[in-house]
Specification:
Elements: H1 4-10, H2 14-18, E1 26-31, H3 37-44, E2 53-58, H4 65-68, E3 76-80, H5 85-92, E4 96-98, H6 106-110, E5 115-122, E6 130-132, H7 140-146, E7 147-154, E8 168-170, E9 176-179, H8 196-206, E10 214-217, H9 221-231, E11 239-241, E12 244-245, H10 247-254, E13 270-272, E14 274-275, H11 279-285, E15 291-293, H12 296-299, H13 302-305, E16 311-315, E17 319-321, E18 326-327, E19 330-331, E20 334-335, H14 342-351, E21 356-360, E22 364-366, E23 372-374, E24 376-377, E25 395-398, E26 401-404, H15 410-419, H16 426-435
Parallel strand pairs: 1-2, 1-5, 2-3, 3-4, 5-7, 7-9, 10-11, 10-16, 11-13, 12-14, 13-15, 16-21, 17-24, 21-25
Antiparallel strand pairs: 6-8, 17-18, 19-20, 22-23, 25-26
Domain Acetyl-CoA hydrolase/transferase C-terminal: 277-433
Organism: Syntrophomonas zehnderi OL-4
Catalytic activity: butanoate + acetyl-CoA = butanoyl-CoA + acetate
Length: 447
């Protein structure tokens, strides 16, 4: 079937697309590195005509024009499902709000959310009339279906990401088409420096790995370091079922470590819901049938995750208290990132036969004034949000060791966590545990 006539009939300019938005509307503006630059710029030019336009996006990868032109937040109210560094800086100026989310529940949430206008970034149309969501399947199929007016912004530079479900939308479901004036390359994440502490932690994580493991890596330098060590290791027949696909998966695949042969679900496929990295990753993804993009209700469902054996989920955290509560998204009232899929994969890995849910973090962090602060805390400070409840936390790994909290009493947890805390803070942590009545005289000090 020839879709040229339908395409032309729906083709409008970004300025015409921006005029679809009315004061008070809810507007959807993409996810991760797939954000609509042309429609954003056109909407920003309408600032003085609009008030109370509420915007949703996920992990903004660059500063939107609508935020630049409205420093008092009188016209555009930005909301992010998962904070990036840009989101944090905006929040510090009261220009962005966080939307709490357990990631795999997003499909159900969107059924009750207003989406008056969606500016959805996509790849060029294919011969069958489909636009691909590229690197950001995630929640795109939900928000586009919910939209009263759907505008797709075509970026011909974006890779076509093949999938198992929900990776594309047909032209018949689209109201309007905007062709990007720049077709700009996707944002490339900066390479994060790897510290000696990251390397020590990664080496301990590697001790928990096994042939045939199905791996998930979170965001950050340490998970990427694990990926680098896997690429250099003797491990074989690894599978991938992850939330985020990053560059280190390319390295592992090209080193022959990833085959997916031992997976029980999506055998042979590298399953993910969004991808962020460098051109190396984006080029790898383009029309690559070994990669399978899925919407998040499938990819992050703990019961889907658990159907693969030996799931090793590796995620970072900001701090862990002596009770085993994990804070990975906010500290002392400041939103840093979000719940994301960490809770989904911690639960999923635990229910996987042979699975290992891992929280990996440095034992301490250096403040701007040079002082050292422990990341193992007596208790979480006011305003710090619990991402993983103590009843669900399993493996915690620092550069000083690994400890599995599952099935452990409060005094056993305190002892195990203090043993992997930074030595400079262990005495005061023991004192705090004693005051909280979660310490026994028989505890082995720094076993």
């Amino acid at each position: 079937m020839d879709y040229i006539a339908e395409y032309k009939s729906k083709l409008i300019t970004a300025e015409e697309a921006a005029k679809l938005v009315k004061s008070g509307d809810w507007v959807q503006m993409g996810e991760f590195v797939m954000q609509p630059k042309d429609c954003d710029a056109a909407l920003a030019k309408r600032k003085d005509e609009l008030t109370d336009v509420k915007i949703r996006l996920t992990t903004m990868s660059w500063l939107p024009e609508v935020c630049k032109v409205d420093p008092e937040r009188k016209h555009f109210i930005m909301n992010d499902w998962h904070f990036s560094g840009t989101s944090r800086r905006l929040m510090d100026k009261n220009l962005c709000s966080y939307i709490p989310l357990t990631y795999h529940e997003a499909r159900s949430l969107y059924q009750d959310l207003d989406v008056d206008v969606s500016f959805q970034p996509v790849t060029s149309i294919d011969k069958n009339g489909f636009f691909n969501f590229s690197t950001s399947n995630s929640m795109a199929s939900y928000s586009t279906k919910q939209a009263k007016k759907l505008v797709v912004e075509v970026n011909s530079s974006a890779p076509v990401c093949l999938g198992g479900l929900g990776e594309s939308i047909h032209i018949s479901e689209v109201d309007y088409i905007v062709e990007s004036s720049t077709n700009s390359k996707l944002v490339s994440l900066p390479e994060l420096p790897v510290s000696t502490v990251d390397q020590k932690i990664a080496a301990l994580v590697m001790e928990e790995m096994m042939d045939g493991a199905c791996i998930q890596l979170g965001i950050g330098a340490m998970p990427n370091t694990v990926g680098a060590l896997i690429a250099q290791s003797d491990l074989k027949d690894l599978g991938v079922h992850t939330e985020m696909l990053c560059d280190s998966f390319v390295d592992m695949y090209e080193a022959g470590k990833i085959t997916g042969a031992k997976k029980t679900l999506d055998k042979g496929k590298m399953v993910y819901t969004f991808a962020m990295g460098s051109d190396k990753l984006y080029n790898f993804l383009d029309y690559n049938p070994v990669c399978a993009s899925y919407p998040v209700h499938y990819c992050n469902d703990p019961y889907i995750i658990a159907q693969n054996n030996n799931v090793v989920a590796i995620n970072n955290a900001l701090e862990v208290d002596l009770y085993g509560q994990v804070a990975s998204e906010a500290s002392a009232g400041r939103q840093i990132s979000g719940t994301g899929g960490q809770l989904d994969f911690i639960i999923g890995a635990f229910h996987s036969q042979g699975g290992k849910p891992i929280i990996a973090l440095s034992s301490s962090v250096k403040k701007s004034d040079g002082s050292l602060v422990s990341r193992i805390k007596p208790g979480l400070s006011p305003g710090t949000i619990v991402t993983v409840p103590r009843s669900i936390t399993s493996y915690v790994i620092t550069e000083y060791g690994s400890f599995n909290l599952k099935g452990k009493s409060t005094w056993e947890r305190a002892e195990g966590l203090i043993n992997i805390a930074h030595p400079a803070f262990r005495d005061e942590l023991v004192k705090a545990a004693e005051d909280a009545k979660i310490w026994l005289r028989s505890n082995k000090l720094y076993a």
